[in-house]
Amino acid sequence: MSDATEACLAVKAAKENTKLEVICTFTFEKTLQGTYRTMMGLSPEDAAVAAVKAGADIIGPNCGNGIARMIDIVKAMRAVDKKTPILVHANAGLPTNVDGKDIFPESPADMAARVPALIEAGANIIGGCCGTTPEHISAIKKAVETYQAKKGN
Ligand SMILES: [Zn+2]
């Protein structure tokens, strides 16, 4: 999602029609000022507050960014909501188009290396979006397991 009103309507409609958890994620872009906004101008903080107020059970960022930028976005969302689970679906970096084909720069190892920082920023569920492969998800899973083993949980 990119607009608070649309996101809230979607969450409420979903909540009216299922007893399942409802996940609401937003796509952010980094601004020239170094902050993050959706294409409709919504900040991660305002997106988190709006989605939770509408009834979302899980919130987070998806797509539009590689895993490094997701750390900043998760920190911003977590700053305004201490308890709602945050889901992250990062791209495998920002693609460049080479001869008509999108090339994503982040390898499975690149993404896995950022997992501890992403967890410490407040992420609870980590997956992948554009450019990620089963190898990326496997590397992320192993990084989560390694992190949990070190932390004793
Ligand atoms: Zn994507």
Verbal overview:
This protein is α/β, with parallel strands linked by helices and 153 residues long. It has 6 helices and 8 strands. A two-stranded parallel ribbon has the order 1-4. A two-stranded antiparallel sheet has the order 2-3. The chain has a two-stranded parallel sheet with strand order 5-8. A hairpin with a 5-residue loop joins β2 (29-30) and β3 (36-37). The N and C termini lie far apart (33 Å). The structure holds zinc ion. Residues 63, 91, 129-130 line the site of zinc ion.
Précis, in short:
With 153 residues, the chain is an alpha/beta fold. The chain has helices spanning 4-17, 44-54, 67-80, 108-113, 115-121, 134-151; strands at residues 23-26, 29-30, 36-37, 58-61, 87-90, 96-98, 101-103, 125-128.
Name some characteristics of this structure.
single chain; 153 residues; TIM Barrel; globular
Spatial ordering of strands, largest sheet = 1-4
Rg (C-alpha, Å): 16 Å
CATH architecture field: Alpha-Beta Barrel
Order of H and E elements? HEEEHEHEEEHHEH
Number of helical runs?
A: 6
**Biggest sheet, in brief?**
2 strands, parallel
Strand elements, count: 8
In which range does the helix fraction lie?
40-55%
CATH class: Alpha Beta
Percent of residues in beta strands?
15-25%
Provide the low-confidence segments as ranges: none
Bound molecules: zinc ion
CATH superfamily: Homocysteine-binding-like domain
Instruction: Tell me the structural class.
Output: alpha/beta
